[in-house]
Amino acid sequence: MFNIGVLALQGDVDAHIDILELLGARVCKITKLSDLHGLDGIVIPGGESTTFSMLLESSGLFEPIKKIVSDGIPTLGTCAGLILLSTKVLDGRSDQKSFGLLNAVVKRNGFGRQISSFVDKIELQDSNNGEEATYINEEYQTVKVTGAFIRAPKIVSVGPGVQVLGTILQKEIVYVREKNIFATSFHPEITRNTFIHEKFLDAAKKG
Ligand code: GLN
Predict the structure, then answer these.
(1) What is the pLDDT of residues 149-196, one digit of tens each?
(2) Which of 6, 43, 108 for a ligand 1 pocket mutation test, highest count of atoms within 8 Å of Cβ?
(3) d(CA 202, CA 186)
(4) What is the rounded radius of gyration, in angstroms, for the C-alpha atoms of the chain?
(5) Is 187 a catalytic residue?
(6) Would you state the pLDDT for residue 206?
(7) CA 196 to CA 189: how far, in whole Å?
(8) Is 189 an annotated catalytic residue?
């Protein structure tokens, strides 16, 4: 059994937990320091990066989480989670902090405001026309991997060492990996395909 912690200070926590449990992980919510013990992977969900930044500081979790991610724990950051992981944030609030561990420049709300939210097919690199076997409704089916973009950050550029794993519109980078860190500018947990979580869990299982 492998243990995954989902940062649960705010944001879209429960949908991540549902998918991770469906895929066989034991999941706990991270709200305090002691929740970080014995984890094989962590998820930083979408929500509001400025609020996360504040709550990470007040809960004393900012530095400890930064340390375990930089030490190599498999990590999945989605949407605000991507913002928190990135080295440079454009259009951030001046007091907003990020861990700065993913070599990427991201622009907050780069895909527009809430009203411009959309769902799109993710063009996965090195895959069969973006169709992947994924675990849905208790069986594997070949489906298109989709993501929901909600006040989503735009990945403006990535630095050396960052692999582009997925795009939309054949040019916008929306899914990346740098060593132990996976990040998406979209919410994969809302559209209920499990591909993104499976890739993260594969890394967590390998340790
Ligand atoms: N725009 C939000 C932020 O800056 C992120 C939105 C989301 O996570 N869906 O944190």
Answers:
(1) 999 999 999 999 999 999 999 899 999 999 999 999 999 999 878 999
(2) 108
(3) 20
(4) 16
(5) yes
(6) 84
(7) 9
(8) yes
Q: Single out the catalytic residue among 123, 132, 172, 189.
A: 189
CA dist list (Å): 18 to 94, 108, 152: 34, 27, 22
- Count structural domains, the chain: 1
- Report, as an integer, the average pLDDT of 19-30: 96
Which structural domain range is residue 155 located in?
Answer: 3-205
Evaluate whether 132 touches 204 at the Cβ level (below 8 Å): no
Backbone angles phi, psi at 24, to 5 degrees: 95, 10
Rounded CA-CA distance 93/97 in Å is 9
For strand 146-149 and strand 118-121, is the pairing parallel, antiparallel, or unpaired? antiparallel
The CATH code of the domain that includes 11 is 3.40.50.880
